[in-house]
User: Which sequence fits this backbone?
């Protein structure tokens, strides 16, 4: 067994989610992503349990580990109580940690995702926040969301929210002392280091692709090539 | 009590839900898209049922969405959750109610992982002390907020002004229920009815007079998929899953959909709009969509609250055909008004999806 395999086995999600896979394919049959993408969780789990580092490295640099929607339907149905979705999370974590994510189109999406999610958490204390959920980037949210964004203060007040207000309530301004604690948590648990790693490898890839960071953000957020789907 | 036979088998699918005294944490998605649902939950628990539900302004996101978008390490998600537990401990509570299915799944996963690997719990306690100087007790009971509404569904039915019944025909409404994957697919014993017979919403529907529709893709994911929605390039995944569900439920002619998870009603609502605008297809009657409601909104409707106080105007699929079927009165002029009937103008109307 190789070094990458050993690193994966240290992840609690692999300890929990990978006992002995019997390759039955039930996970693939139930998987919403496998119906849509060229994706087969059975093969991924089998690759990991074989422990071949060369194959694991290919996985970590590939698009396929990023196709899963983490719905975890596979956990319910596996007859051996494995969690292919958990194994995927461990693979993604290792890919991010080692910078391999930047080698695939879907992996590079970690850059905008990290900007959005960690930015919302550290700036506002929420994973999703209205000020950063623009209608222009979410036109499927419909004209009603567009209207709502144009009247946030009045509309949230009408809905009983406490948008940017003091005290408890929906979308309250979370006190700075609490945001500072979130920052401290990020610093001591590896999230700050993870953000820096994503930035570092994304910058290098943007340079290689001849893009500014703003262009790279838009490209990774919006561009989808046609190689991913079952029906192509 | 000693259970035997089928009663014993069914007891495995039950969940103990304490009567009172809950520490309440909000949902990122519900606060953004259905804030009135959280207001209604608190109002029902506190004012209608007389329960003690405590909210503390210092709680934050649980980090669950960021965790499932693979943007933060597992230890980070665990330490954020440990901080939430510390706030509960400081407030003197031991029952924990989360308003989000992703959170509920996140909390459950963390507690189960700590149970399996106590050394990890020790490490997280150290990280929490190092970062926040806080200590915590684990919750004695963990619930999703729908578990509480489920527990008190019959009390709500006794106080109800309306039932989920067509006022013209007297027939029960045909109701699709959508549980949300992380409620019980990961840890079946933690949800009412488990993964095989999830009953949390079905129980509400039956108590309030409706008929539950069983259809082939009843347990299929709504299509959120975390990164499959939050990255624009991936959204066809999300849309395709919703489409699959609607094609499957269409022959059963649902009058409404009731949802458990805060994200699912957003996707089942908004992707109906997209399907209508791009394909010209609508799933409700006469060009309308199928109204998709949160369980708090449905509870509020049967209790007789004004639909616009419940926030139904923030749905893209109009709820008016459902309100008319039940016989709930509403003022169309007030739909998009602010507080004190302040004029906020109105959203544009979609081209194909019929709305008011």
Assistant:
């Amino acid at each position: 067994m190789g070094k990458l395999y050993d690193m994966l086995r240290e992840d609690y999600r692999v300890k929990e989610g990978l006992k002995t896979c019997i390759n039955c394919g039930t996970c693939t049959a139930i998987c919403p992503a496998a119906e849509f993408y060229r994706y087969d969780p059975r093969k991924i789990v089998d690759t990991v349990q074989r422990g071949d580092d060369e194959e694991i490295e290919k996985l970590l640099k590939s698009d396929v580990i990023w196709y899963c929607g983490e719905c975890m339907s596979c956990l319910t149905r596996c007859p051996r109580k494995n969690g292919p979705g958990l194994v995927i999370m461990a693979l993604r974590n290792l890919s991010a940690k080692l910078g391999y994510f930047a080698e695939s189109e879907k992996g590079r999406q970690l850059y905008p995702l990290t900007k959005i999610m960690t930015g919302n958490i550290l700036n506002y204390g929420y994973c999703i926040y209205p000020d950063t959920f623009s209608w222009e980037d979410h036109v499927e949210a419909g004209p009603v969301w567009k209207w709502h964004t144009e009247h946030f203060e009045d509309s949230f007040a009408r809905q009983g929210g406490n948008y940017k207000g003091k005290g408890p309530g929906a979308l309250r301004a979370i006190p700075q002392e609490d945001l500072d604690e979130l920052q401290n948590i990020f610093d001591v648990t590896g999230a700050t280091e993870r953000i820096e790693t994503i930035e570092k490898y994304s910058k290098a890839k943007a340079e290689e692709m001849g893009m500014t960071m703003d262009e790279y953000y838009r490209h990774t957020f919006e561009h989808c090539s046609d190689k991913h789907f079952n029906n192509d | 009590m000693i259970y035997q036979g089928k009663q014993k088998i069914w007891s495995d699918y039950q969940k103990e839900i304490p009567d009172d005294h809950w520490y309440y944490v909000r949902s990122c998605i519900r606060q953004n898209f259905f804030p009135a649902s959280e207001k209604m939950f608190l109002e029902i628990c506190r004012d209608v049922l007389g329960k003690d539900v405590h909210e503390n302004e210092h709680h934050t996101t649980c980090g669950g969405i960021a965790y499932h978008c693979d943007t933060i390490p597992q230890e980070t998600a665990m330490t954020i959750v440990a901080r939430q537990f510390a706030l509960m401990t400081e407030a003197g509570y031991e029952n924990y109610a989360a308003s989000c299915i992703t959170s509920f799944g996140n909390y459950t996963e963390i507690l189960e992982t700590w149970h399996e690997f106590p050394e990890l719990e020790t490490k997280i306690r150290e990280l929490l002390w190092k970062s926040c100087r806080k200590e915590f007790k684990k919750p004695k009971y963990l619930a999703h907020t729908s578990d509480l509404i489920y527990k008190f569904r019959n009390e709500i039915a006794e106080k109800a002004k309306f039932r989920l019944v067509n006022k013209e025909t007297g027939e029960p409404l045909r109701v699709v229920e959508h549980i949300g994957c992380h409620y019980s697919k990961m840890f079946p014993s933690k949800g009412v009815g488990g993964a095989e017979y999830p009953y949390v919403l079905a129980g509400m529907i039956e108590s309030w007079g409706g008929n539950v529709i069983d259809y082939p893709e009843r347990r299929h994911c709504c299509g959120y998929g975390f990164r499959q929605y939050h990255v624009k390039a991936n959204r066809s995944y999300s849309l395709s899953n919703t489409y699959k569900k609607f094609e499957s439920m269409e022959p059963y002619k649902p009058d409404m959909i009731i949802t458990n998870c805060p994200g699912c009603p957003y996707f089942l609502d908004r992707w109906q709009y997209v399907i209508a605008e791009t394909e010209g297809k609508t799933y409700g009657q006469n060009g309308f969509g199928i109204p998709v409601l949160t369980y708090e909104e449905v509870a509020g409707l049967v209790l007789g609250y004004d639909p616009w106080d419940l926030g139904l105007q923030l749905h893209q699929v109009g709820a008016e055909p459902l309100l008319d079927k039940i016989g709930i009165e509403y003022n169309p002029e007030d739909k998009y008004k602010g507080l004190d009937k302040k004029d906020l103008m109105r959203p544009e109307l979609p081209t194909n999806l019929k709305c008011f």
Notes: Residues 33 and 68 of chain A are 6 Å apart (CA to CA). Chain A has two domains: 3-98, 107-228. Chain A touches chain B through 89 residues (CB under 8 Å). The radius of gyration of chain A is 20 Å.
